[in-house]
Amino acid sequence: MICSDFQPFTIVNDPGFKNLINILDPRYILPSPYTLSEAPQAIENIELNASNGTFLTCIKIQYNNVETVFACNQNNLNNFTEAPHAIQNIELNASNSTFLTCNKIQYNNVETAFANNQKMCKRQHTNNSDSKEEELKKKARENNEKSTMAVTIRLLTEEVAELRKEISKLQELIKRKDKHNSDLTNQVLQMSTAMQNMYNRRTKRLQSSKLKQLAAM
To answer: Which residues does the annotated region (Disordered) include (predicted)?
Structure first.
């Protein structure tokens, strides 16, 4: 018999427990990206293809499949590991406005499971010049792990439904795309602007809330 658990070190995280796990018989499978290797494709597929090159240039949409690991150590034994999954990257025509649609999948940590349930989140890749990198490395060091890749996920929880409605409209426009319809570009740009405005309002509310919390301290 082979036993498995997605998060053993979330409950008990010390060297003695890890050593015990390694000598158990029957074998105890440690969590890693490979224990969740069967990751399905994203359920939200924006139907764009090579023939829409002009359309893509006009509204500056980028799309690609991404596999991310949150803060995995060199032995792939990290409970912060995010299961590899395919996602669609919709980059709106504005700074700091990358929205992702995530598929249903069984994640091996609570944070990514919550993000997945929200269906819409904002992702930021970190690098050596980003302060978030040090924050993630510190979190990894606290768990005796070596960070090899860092990804920050920010959730948009209040306006998800509105954003999804706008994206659905955008999908319908793409499906009904008429080369002779000169209004298509304007309609898409208006939707992109509407989504960006909703995100901006959400960000301002979050900032205001944080300031109030600091003032109350």
So the answer is: 121-143
* Alpha-helical regions (H) of 7-122: 8-11, 15-23, 53-59, 110-118
pTM: 0.23
Structure tokens at 193: 């602007």
Please tell me the distance from the alpha carbon of residue 17 to that of residue 22, in angstroms, as a whole number: 9
Written as tens digits, the pLDDT of the chain (217 aa) is 334 444 444 445 566 666 666 666 555 544 433 333 333 332 233 333 323 333 332 232 222 222 233 333 334 333 332 322 223 333 333 333 333 333 333 333 334 443 444 333 333 343 333 444 455 445 444 443 333 333 333 333 334 455 556 555 655 665 565 555 555 555 555 655 665 666 566 666 655 665 555 555 4
Token pair listed for 173:
């426009």
CA angle 192, 127, 202 (to 5 degrees): 35
Phi, psi of 3 (to 5 degrees): -95, 150
- Other Cβ atoms within 10 Å of 42 Cβ, number: 19
Distance between CA 106 and CA 39 in Å, rounded? Answer: 9
DSSP string, 188-212: HHHHHHHHHHHHHHHHHHHHHHHHH
Per the CB < 8 A criterion, the answer to whether 73 and 147 are in contact is: yes
